[in-house]
Amino acid sequence: MDTTDFRRARSPQAKQQREAAILDAARDLGAEQGIRQVTLTDIAAAVGMHKSALLRYFETREAIFLRLTAADWQEWAPVLCAEIGRVAVGDTAGVAAAFARTLAVRGMFCDLLAQAPMNLERNVSVEAVREFKLVTLTAVDAIVAAVRSRLPELTEADGVDLMAAATSMAGSFWQIATPGPEVAALYRSDPQLAHAIVDVEPRLARILTAMLEGIVAARRGGMPRH
Computed over its alpha carbons, how large is the radius of gyration of the chain? Predict the structure, then answer.
């Protein structure tokens, strides 16, 4: 795209269009290369802007990807809630599978989940972090309510713990499951390293099922969780 196409936006609508183009470019690059590999210069080049012009719309590359993380939370939450709504009451494995299934197919979101606390929240304004946290809190509240409708033994705190475990493990497992091509080839060529090949969905489902079964058992037995 010619950089002359991206003269400074003069209206709120034009500014929104510029921001959307930047976010779309960042998402495409992140999905292709991985979040850590994408620079602000890469994003600017993809939309045909000079880097200095892009900074009029986003303060840092981290601000761009933090906005994408918030958008993915807003997209994922209703999908997961709908999946959980189809699970039978008391079906811990079904709830765990819903988390694992909806996260595993969102590789970019998993990458963002891993990067957000490590990098994305650390090079943006306090207000940007606040806006991001408010989005995630709204999503978490909706998901916890959906989980508790299927597993009524769980407290709100249990639901929040489940969310923290699911999203942090999904982010970590996705990083492990997507090494560079040379490392991936090494894992597949050496039987001693086969354990390093991670299939995100089944592993996440197993761990979350065990977690939920333990919580439910403790609640039914009247045992407090600390």
Answer: 20
